[in-house]
From TrEMBL:
This is Ldh family oxidoreductase. Belongs to the LDH2/MDH2 oxidoreductase family. Keywords: Oxidoreductase. InterPro entries: Mal/L-sulf/L-lact_DH-like_ah (IPR043144), Mal/L-sulf/L-lact_DH-like_NADP (IPR043143), Mal/L-sulfo/L-lacto_DH-like_sf (IPR036111), Malate/L-lactate_DH-like (IPR003767). Gene3D superfamilies: 1.10.1530.10, Hypothetical oxidoreductase yiak, domain 2.
Length: 341
């Protein structure tokens, strides 16, 4: 059996925060980025866990993320709240904007948070769950950098362009989905490359536009959208709403800004929060009760609600701790030493 080390969620958060702070991140950025990274490990989403630390540090060293930047909130009292991240990591900007977004959504029924000039590196569901914890439904989306070919295309143009949605369930974990509009997240292909395992067919094309199952060729070529033209259309919608509409970079522009896919993408993010009570006011039936009947019907057919595995893993991690392999622990120590030297 492979030896493992078990760490509590607070202990792992402390370790990751320390690495990021020693690397030069502000207190706010170090804390919020660490919380998202540890959430990935806690919920058994390895592709969004401590694996992401190295990319954060690499992008910081390249000067493409501003470790000491303090995001600035602009609120004119309307349904649109803005946070200029000023080059900071996106979790710091979200932490500043989310409380205002939640209050405004409860007041008006719907509100949006536009985050500009941020570096995004991980999943969207941690942000979604901040809002569902406050009884709000929520959508979040962002471009990436051009690594995905549009349906029928042969070269990278779109980003992996994740989309997340959450619905609050009083007394239960929320209904949440979070997925890339590419067949898989780029991190999944990188993990296949590191392990030397082939990709499933239909995930990617090589530099000549031919189908490939080789992760190295895929990283040099382009990923494909899920569902063919349907995923391509949704991905393009995200470019428009979370790029062009909020006055930020689309995926091709983000790649031009970075000059490399070895760094984390720089762009904007759009989060929309909605109050089920406001929208259903005066209509028959309670929105949450009707939603529960729908969820029960889905599960009653033997289907699984999205994120159930994450929530199961989370309960275990919170009760028993997070298991890290010897290689993972050695990697954390190596990163800690590298930022101290």
């Amino acid at each position: 059996m492979t030896p493992t080390t078990t760490l509590s969620v607070p202990r792992l958060t402390e370790m990751v925060t320390g690495i990021l702070a020693d690397a030069g991140l502000s207190d706010l950025q170090a804390r919020t980025v660490a919380e998202v990274i540890v959430a990935g490990e806690r919920d058994a989403c390895k592709s969004h866990g401590i694996y992401r630390i190295e990319g954060c540090l690499r992008t910081l060293r390249a000067g493409k993320v501003q470790g000491k930047a303090e995001p600035v909130l602009t609120d004119d009292g309307s349904a649109v709240i803005r946070v200029d991240a000023r080059g900071a990591f996106s979790p710091a900007a979200f932490a500043i904007g989310a409380p205002v977004l939640a209050v405004r959504a409860r007041e008006l029924g719907i509100a949006a948070l536009a985050i500009n000039s941020c570096t995004h590196f991980s999943a969207l569901w941690p942000e979604i769950e901040v809002l569902t914890d406050q009884g709000l439904a929520a959508l979040a989306m962002c471009p990436s950098y051009a690594t995905v070919a549009p349906a029928g295309g042969s070269r990278p143009l779109l980003g992996t362009n994740p989309l997340a949605f959450g619905w609050p369930r009083p007394g239960k974990p929320p209904y949440v989905f979070d997925f890339a509009t590419s067949v898989a997240a780029r991190g999944e292909i990188e993990l296949h490359r590191r392990s030397g395992s082939p990709l499933p067919e239909g995930w990617a094309i090589d530099g000549d536009g031919a189908p490939t199952t080789d992760p190295t060729s895929a990283l040099q070529g382009a990923m494909l959208t899920f569902g063919g033209h349907k995923g391509s259309a949704i991905s393009t919608m995200i470019e428009l709403l979370a790029g062009a509409m909020i006055g930020d970079l689309t995926s091709p522009e983000a790649l031009d800004f970075l000059g490399s896919t070895d760094l984390l993408p720089h762009h904007g993010e759009l989060i929309i929060a909605l109050s089920p009570e406001k929208f259903s006011a005066g209509r028959p039936g309670a929105a949450f009760d009707r939603a529960e009947r729908l969820f029960e019907a889905i599960v009653g057919q033997g289907a699984r609600l999205p994120s159930q595995r994450r929530f199961t893993a989370r309960a275990r991690s919170l009760a028993e701790g997070i298991d890290l392999t010897a290689d993972e622990m050695a990697g954390l120590e190596r990163l800690a030493q590298s930022v101290r030297s």
